[in-house]
Amino acid sequence: METKYTVSGMTCQHCVAHVTEEVSAVAGVDQVSVSLDDGSMAVTSAAPIAFDAIKAAVDEAGDYTVAPA
């Protein structure tokens, strides 16, 4: 399953790399695709991932905000 999010606060590819790395480490996440151009993120997983886990990972990555798309 794929879940889409909006990520705000990213300004460069370094930001994208940090968000991708942290969200990829969340248990159950199979794939993460982050777009700087439109501030979107798609998370692929076999089962639903709690939004709180995604939010915590994005918070850990830096000064970014995330919301369900």
Outline:
With 69 residues, this protein is α+β, with helices and mostly antiparallel strands.
Secondary structure elements and pairings:
Layout: E1 2-8, H1 13-24, E2 29-35, E3 40-45, H2 51-61, E4 65-68
Antiparallel strand pairs: 1-3, 1-4, 2-3
What does this structure look like?
With 69 residues, this protein is an alpha+beta fold. The protein has a single domain (2-68), classed as 2-Layer Sandwich (Alpha-Beta Plaits). The chain has helices at residues 13-24, 51-61, and strands spanning 2-8, 29-35, 40-45, 65-68. Strands 2-3-1-4 form a four-stranded antiparallel sheet, covered by helices on one side. The two termini are 15 Å apart. The mean pLDDT is 98.
Tags for this model:
single chain, 69 residues, alpha+beta, 2 helices
- Which structural class fits the helix and strand makeup? alpha+beta
Tell me, briefly, the overall form.
globular
**Uncertain runs with pLDDT below 50, 5 residues or more?**
none
Q: What is the strand tally?
A: 4
Mean pLDDT: 98
Query: Could you say what the CATH topology is called?
Result: Alpha-Beta Plaits
Number of domains: 1
Distance N terminus to C terminus?
A: 15 Å
Strand order of the largest sheet: 2-3-1-4
Number of helices, where a helix is a run of at least 4 consecutive DSSP H or I residues: 2
Question: How large is the radius of gyration?
Answer: 10 Å
Helix proportion: 25-40%
Strand composition percent: 25-35%
User: What's the architecture, going by CATH?
Assistant: 2-Layer Sandwich
